[in-house]
């Protein structure tokens, strides 16, 4: 029995539900081109989605995998994380097979984006599920006649049973910028990263896959094309700043993001760039 893709209403927003014959599923909202749910085959939900998230069609949706483009965080003059996560994307491809389901969504420049960032572009986000695997591929195409530069990320919110019991492996020896300590530059000295307080770090030029261990499970996290890894959880005091998160939700999530944050990526006219993040249950 092949996989399936159906159009659904998710909290009042149009979305796609992908499913496979083995029982894997994902939900992708057209608002923001955002993956909101991923359940691997014979597994449970692996993405955090806030119960207080806004679904008004204008605000960012808190959780899942927001697409940050053409700016990461506040590293520029645009609104935080750019405009892609609040734009309406369109579906350009849907494919299923015996053990997979895949969809591609597209966002191109329009009058609203050009008012903020005066560059012609096309984004293509491909989401594929297969057994215990979620593949995300973001392609950025410079469709204009002049070069541009951008930063961005796949801002992945992972759902965890208890963040203090998590161990993130694979970052040893990499340099990082600590946003919670005046952007100090340090080098990771531990074989395992434990999150026991607020954390907001950008790890630079990460060349190894990561492994998140928690509750007797392991999740492989691999990126390609994105040079940086962001690890983020603002803990109890920080989460109080967010009306769209419950006060104790910091215990149930950890952001491990594939990012291009330290240096902007430059694209000449007609060029394209591709970045990927893959999550695999182990």
UniProtKB/TrEMBL annotation:
It is an enzyme of class 5 (isomerase). Keywords: Isomerase. Its EC number is 5.1.3.15. InterPro entries: Aldose_1/G6P_1-epimerase (IPR008183), G6P_1-epimerase (IPR025532), Gal_mutarotase_sf_dom (IPR011013), GH-type_carb-bd (IPR014718). It catalyses: alpha-D-glucose 6-phosphate = beta-D-glucose 6-phosphate. Pfam families: Aldose_epim. CDD domains: D-hex-6-P-epi_like (cd09020). Coiled coil: none annotated. Belongs to the glucose-6-phosphate 1-epimerase family. PANTHER family: APOSPORY-ASSOCIATED PROTEIN C-RELATED, GLUCOSE-6-PHOSPHATE 1-EPIMERASE. This is Putative glucose-6-phosphate 1-epimerase. It comes from Thauera sedimentorum.
């Amino acid at each position: 029995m092949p996989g399936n893709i159906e159009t659904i209403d998710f909290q009042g927003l149009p979305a796609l539900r992908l499913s496979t014959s083995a029982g894997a599923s994902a939900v992708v909202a057209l608002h923001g081109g955002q993956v909101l749910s991923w359940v691997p085959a014979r597994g449970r939900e692996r993405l955090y989605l806030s119960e207080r998230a806004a679904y008004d069609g204008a605000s960012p949706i808190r959780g899942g995998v927001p697409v940050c483009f053409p700016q990461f965080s506040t590293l520029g003059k645009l609104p935080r994380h750019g405009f892609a996560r609040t734009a309406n994307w369109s579906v350009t491809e849907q494919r299923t097979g015996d053990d997979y389901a895949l969809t591609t969504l597209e966002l191109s420049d329009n009058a609203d984006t050009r008012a903020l960032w005066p560059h012609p572009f096309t984004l293509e986000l491909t989401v594929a599920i297969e057994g215990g695997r979620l593949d995300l591929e973001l392609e950025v195409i410079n469709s204009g006649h002049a070069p541009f530069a951008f930063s961005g990320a796949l801002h992945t919110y992972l759902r965890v049973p208890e963040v203090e019991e998590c161990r993130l492996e694979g970052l040893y020896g990499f340099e990082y910028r600590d946003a919670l300590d005046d952007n100090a530059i340090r080098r990771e000295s531990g074989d395992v990263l434990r999150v026991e307080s607020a954390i907001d770090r950008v790890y630079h030029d990460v060349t190894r896959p990561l492994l998140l261990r928690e509750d007797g499970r392991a999740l492989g996290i691999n990126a390609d094309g994105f040079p940086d890894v962001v690890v983020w959880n603002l803990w109890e005091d920080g989460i109080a700043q967010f009306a769209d998160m419950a006060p104790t939700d910091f215990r149930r999530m950890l952001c491990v993001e594939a990012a291009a944050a330290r240096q902007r990526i430059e694209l000449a006219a007609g060029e394209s760039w591709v970045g990927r993040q893959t999550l695999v249950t182990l």
